[in-house]
Amino acid sequence: MAALSFLSDNELLRLLGQDDHNAYSEIYHRYFHLIYVHAIKKVQDKEQAKDVAQDVFTYLWFKREKTSQVNDLAAYLFTSARNKIFDLFAHEQVEQKHVDSLQKFYSKNPIHPTDHQTRERDFQAYIDKQIAELPPKMRLIFEMSRKEQLSYKEIAEQLDTTENNVSKQVNKAVRVLRTKLGPMFIFL
Asked: In this structure, which topology does domain 2-108 adopt according to CATH?
């Protein structure tokens, strides 16, 4: 690899055209930082500049068979970087047009509940109705357990009962709801 550092750009390009990975690595190490700094000056973002530089060298590798036509490696790489930057700016403009279009659409067409949201709301109402039909004490314990996320111990302390009683009430409520809701119970 050290021997390649003494080769000219044209010799490295000739080797690259013959699928020489070491020649590619030498070109990469020789020019990556320069391309990266150039890209930072244009795009004002380190990550985007890094992506541009990576794209330039990826493109170079994929087009290595055609490198025999390149006369000036530095000019070729900087031109490639310039083109990648133009592509990036063009993509950002298209992206911004889409965002603007969506914002304009939503401002003119307020979002109404979709069928999915309506079904979800109806489903939740059905579950709440089934819970409301539980015996009062069982319903209270079940709601404290599931909706308020209280532990059996906390529920037992608040209702002045035993943890065992709380556990039994929750298990009974689960069995009743599982029977009433069937496969929909998993959503509870």
From this structure: Rna Polymerase Sigma Factor; Chain: A (1.10.1740)
Assess whether pLDDT exceeds 80 at residue 163: yes
- DSSP string covering 4-53, please? GGGS-HHHHHHHHHTT-HHHHHHHHHHHHHHHHHHHHHHH--HHHHHHHH
* Separation of alpha carbons 96 and 85, rounded Å: 16
Q: pLDDT for 54-81, tens place per residue?
A: 999 999 999 898 887 888 999 999 999 9
CB contact burial 117-131 (16+ within 10 A = b; e otherwise): eeeeeeeeeebeebb
CATH classification number, 115-187, choose in 1.10.540.10, 3.30.70.360, 1.10.10.10, 3.40.190.10:
1.10.10.10
Residues of the chain with pLDDT > 90, as a percent, come to 31
Transcribe 75-110 into DSSP letters. Answer: HHHHHHHHHHHHHHHHHHHHHHHHHHHHHHHHHHS-
Domain segments of the chain: what residues? 2-108, 115-187
